[in-house]
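Notebook B, p. 112. Complex prediction, attempt 2.
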Amino acid sequence: MCVSLFRFPACWALAAALTLSGCKEAEQVQAEHAATLKRQAELKVEFDGLEQKLVDLRKAVPPGPTPEESARRVTVRLQKELEMLDQELVVATKDHEAAQAELKRLREQLEKLKEELSR
Amino acid sequence: MKNLIALILFASGLAGWYFYDQLEKMKEDLEDSRRNIAAYEKTLEARRTEFQTLVGALELQKKTEFRKAEIAAMKGKAAEARVESQKVRGEQKQIIVSLRQRLVGQVLPELVLADGRKLFNVRISKLDDTGLAVTSTSGVTKLRPAELSADLRRRLYFP
């Protein structure tokens, strides 16, 4: 009976349609697969680049339980240090200004004394 | 003829099954790739965060070094100003010695001290940082800068 069905052109057309549809789906899957492979390769390149940079950067910070923790600790320590240094700079600037003011006052006094001496 | 059609049908079925199996495998591979990408992206995100934190830490380190250099420069300038001040003080001292020498021997008709005492016909015989020695109608008197009035202290170059 099955064989006799294929005597009708409609059956051939159906079979052909099914085959075409399968081929189209296969093409689509293949294209998607190629795209994912490309994306995977891109990610790998980025990952390798980052890893290379991280190797150098990790050397610059002291080791910790994890690299992230180590970086976080260094950041916190440096932030505190920077705050202290900012305050120290304010004190040093004031000290410098006071020393400059004193020098200016002494120079003015000296000028007056020189004038008196030349009289 | 019937056998040929049956053979074609069998071959088509076999080919169909083969292609269907291949298609399913491709779909599985695609799913695997998608899962891999998701895992990759997750790891990459962690690395990006670590990278940002490390770069931030290094920038902070640079800032800290720069701040230290700024402080050192400021301290250096302050020290230079103090050294210069010391030099100026030395010069002032020399000029004051010369100016005081001019005053030695001068006669003042009246000298009013800080406590209100008055000395008359005063002649300055000695004048230095420790004070002055004068001869007056009351005799020889040694006066410390603290004993002098503010105006006189200024005129005799005492601080």
